[in-house]
Each structure stands twice: as C-alpha cells, then as structure tokens.
Amino acid sequence: MTNCNAKDYGIPQNRERVFCISILGDHEPYIFHEKQELTIRLKDVLEDEVDEKYYMSEERVAQLTWK
C-alpha cells in the first residue's frame, strides 16, 4: 500500500490517493512508476483571452452567492 499524489506523476493536480495492490500467486512485485517533476502549471494551459460567452452575468453571480 502506498500514497501517491497526482502532481508527482505529471498531472497538474494536487490530489493524494492511496493505492492497494494485491497480487495472487507467484508473480513479480508491483513497482510504482518513479516520480517525475511537474512541468505543466495551470497558468500554462489557461488562455489569456476568453470569449465573453464564458463569463457569468453579475445577476447570475448574485444568485449563486446569495446567502
């Protein structure tokens, strides 16, 4: 059993998971991939200019944040 974080395997997420590997019979032990440095950041994939159609109106924001 081991803990793995997605960010240690080239995925731009900080998400920890627990993996349990069970092998029945006479097999080689499971070896997890070596960790690799995260080279992609969220800002690398976000666009600088976004079309207006993807923005929420102020009215809709108010509806979603109403308390």
From TrEMBL:
<dbReference type="InterPro" id="IPR001525">
    <property type="entry name" value="C5_MeTfrase"/>
</dbReference>
<keyword id="KW-0808">Transferase</keyword>
<dbReference type="GO" id="GO:0003886">
    <property type="term" value="F:DNA (cytosine-5-)-methyltransferase activity"/>
</dbReference>
<dbReference type="GO" id="GO:0009307">
    <property type="term" value="P:DNA restriction-modification system"/>
</dbReference>
<dbReference type="InterPro" id="IPR029063">
    <property type="entry name" value="SAM-dependent_MTases_sf"/>
</dbReference>
<keyword id="KW-0489">Methyltransferase</keyword>
<dbReference type="GO" id="GO:0032259">
    <property type="term" value="P:methylation"/>
</dbReference>
<protein>
    <recommendedName>
        <fullName>DNA (cytosine-5-)-methyltransferase</fullName>
    </recommendedName>
</protein>
<keyword id="KW-0680">Restriction system</keyword>
<dbReference type="Pfam" id="PF00145">
    <property type="entry name" value="DNA_methylase"/>
</dbReference>
